[in-house]
Amino acid sequence: MGEEPNDARPEPADRIPGGDASHQNQNQNQSQNQNPQQGQAQGQGQNPAPPDPRAAPSPEAPPWAPVRPAAAPGTPAAPPPPERPPATPTLAFGPPPQASGQPAGQPSGQQSGPPPGESSGAVPVGAGAAAPDYSYGYPRSGPATAPGYGPPPGYGPPGYGPPGYGPPPGHGAQPPAQPPGPANPAQAAAIGLLNLSGLGLGYVLLRNWIGAVLCWLATAALLVVALPADVDGVPVGVLVGYGVFLLAAAADGFRRGLRATLRIGAAFRRLALPLALVLLAVPAGGSLAYGAARDEAKEQALLARLTTADERVKSGQGLLFERAEPLYRLALATYQDLGTKHAGSRAGKLVPARLDAYYEQLSAPYAKKDYCKAVAPLTHLRGLSGAVDKDLLGTRPAKTDEPLAESLYECGTAALGVQAADPPAEKSLNALLDTFPESDHATRVEPAVRAAVKTRSTAVDGATPCEAVVELRTIRTTVGALPGADFDGAARETSTAIEKGDFACGTSQFRSKDFDDAVTTMTQFAKDHPSSPKAAHARSIAIAAEIADEEAEAGKALPPAKAPGGSRMVMVVSNDGPGSVELLYTGPTTGRITLNACATCTKYPNPIFEGSKKIKACTGPSSKYPKATLLLPAGNYHFLQKRAGTGTSSAGDTKTSKAKIEPGYSYTNCLYVTSGF
Question: Suppose 321 and one of 243, 373, 376, 592 were both cysteines; which one would form an S-S bond, judging by CB atoms 3.0 to 4.6 Å apart?
């Protein structure tokens, strides 16, 4: 369609006079090529000259050739059809095709002539004359083939056409190469844009399947790398490489499509460019969709971080704050990062609620009135203003001031007098006075200390004076660690209460027959309070307790605080033994004396080994023995001699004895040492 009919058809050999088929046919073609005007002369009724065998046929179409319809008004004229080479005569095998100009039903072999009233003129070779039929080796007469119909030129069996129109020697019959069409920028742009979509549709229109497959592979590789979308996204190198590939494919499609003849309809050809523009939305939409997927992946990653932080906070429940604090610090770092750097994300918007829950969890001990346990977490919460973004925390740290001050006060005052308190009272109270010096709780510390002292001082007169005095000593340590002169009065009251408590504790121990502890308590009391009016009595109780520890009968009653009046009897005590000796006595009066060592005295043999022989100690000159004189009121006394160690005796040798002192008598007491061998 759109081509001029080819009316140059070979004349059968039997219609060319004077020659064989092949030679005559060749001459006829040459004659038509050399004398193009000869056919016109014959059409004008002149006597035609003999045809020149070298002349070429007239290029004009015969009268019966199809006429191209005229273009509609306003429509650009169609371009002229490209020139085609002259047809090559072929031999048909089989029944000849019916000419388009032959009426339907006309018998074969009849030829439609020119219109009435016109001279037939010269008949071109192969046009209007009946061509012989060589179907089965014998020529037959038949109707002439209408111009423009029949086998395409150059497609007959080799060797039957004019020279130069057959296939090259040694090659099969191939169609002639399609000449490039005119440049079509719109078409080229459409193909380039179709390739730019990444789908390779431009190559599909060009039927360049290799290019299309490359586009598909590149897009598939990008999808494999990009999907599923993650936080990091596609590597920049991959995106740059894919973009360069798409630009190269678009440029190549533009180049190929500029003069290409597409095998598509005119309607689809008009839709190619709009379709290409529409398909550009594929990569753009894919980018937007991938961006949305990546944003969602980021949101999920941030939510996962938030969940991890929540789990860390939750895992700190039930643990001591010191052990859980590292977990809390990690969770806070996550909250701060999400709440500041990703504040617009879903996770970032949840951070304020998480911080409220964080404060509530760490303030739980305060809500349960476990004040000492609440001090550490509340101190941590109050100090977050220097570690976490202030705008993120808001007023939360300030809200912990009152709970922290109350917790420090309650914890510190509860630890007053508690020796094993952790933390000790002075630590909590000092923290309160340093951190909140102007608070109401700080002003309540000194009265609370004095109240604690009074309470323990009252307890001294109770059943457990020793426990009370221990608490008083602990309070004294606390008061000594508190700053300022406000606690001087409390310190004096504490010392007075301790003095009272120590004496009460010693007497309680003596009555409880705990003589060793009574000795220690009363001895320490006399040292700690030498100017106390009870110091002498404390020493007497200590001596009596020491004797009672060896002779329980001596501890039946406390020695009197003051010696009785009346006459006193003399008791001379001599040391007839090696080493010095300490004599303790208790009764109506209590005391202690020490006798120096006797240089010439030795141990006496034990009467068991000497039969019933009586020991006669202190029978020598009185000046020989170290002596001491006691003035004792009448009454029953218990004695305890404690001899110092020598070469013949060991330190700590003790011996108890009893004596009754009656009025009007004088007494002697000789202290000696016996040997066991």
Answer: 376
CB atoms under 10 Å from CB of 646, counted, come to 16
Cβ contact 51:60 at 8 Å: no
Cα–Cα nearest to 5, from 73, 101, 74: 101
Q: How far apart are CA 461 and CA 429, in angstroms?
A: 29
3-state secondary structure of 642: strand
**Angstrom distance (rounded) from CA 112 to CA 144:** 9
Residue 364's alpha-carbon distances to 66, 113, 375, in angstroms, are: 104, 118, 11
Contact 645, 627 (CB under 8 A): no
For 248, list phi and psi in degrees, rounded to 5: -65, -40
Contact in structure between 75 and 121 (CB atoms under 8 Å): no
Provide the 10 A C-beta neighbour count for residue 440: 11
**Residues facing residue 633 across a β-bridge:** 568
pTM: 0.57
Strand order, beta sheet including 627-633: 627-633, 568-576, 667-672
- Range with the poorest average pLDDT among 19-28, 495-504, 628-637: 19-28
Specify the amino acid at residue 72: A
Residues 573/583, Cβ–Cβ less than 8 Å: yes
Token pair 């000159």: residue: 621
* C-alpha to C-alpha distance for 589 and 634, rounded to whole angstroms: 9
483-496 burial by CB neighbour count: b if 16+ within 10 A, else e?
eeeebeebbebbbe
DSSP state of 592: E
Q: What is the pLDDT of residues 4-20, one digit of tens each?
A: 333 334 444 444 444 44
Distance CA 242, CA 239 (A): 5
Task: Characterize the bridge pairing of strands 667-672 and 653-661.
Answer: unpaired
**Cα–Cα distance measured from residue 538 to residue 523, given in angstroms and rounded to the nearest whole number:** 7
Cα distance between residue 315 and residue 358, in whole Å = 12
Rounded to whole angstroms, the Cα distance separating 7 from 4 reads 9
Mean of all residue pLDDT scores within the chain: 76
* Per-residue burial over 7-19, b = 16 or more CB atoms within 10 Å of its CB, e = otherwise: bbbbbbbebbeee
- Write out the two tokens for 423: 């933390």
pLDDT for position 194: 83
Tokens of 465: 């004076």
Of the candidates 60, 53, 44, 42, the one whose C-alpha atom is nearest the C-alpha of residue 11 is 53
Select from 457, 525, 446 the least CA-distant residue to 479.
446
210-220: per-residue pLDDT in tens? Answer: 988 998 998 88
**Which tens digit of pLDDT belongs to each residue from 32-80?**
333 433 333 333 344 444 555 444 444 444 443 444 544 444 444 444 5
Helix (H) / strand (E) element for 635: namely: strand 635-643
Residue type at position 526: A
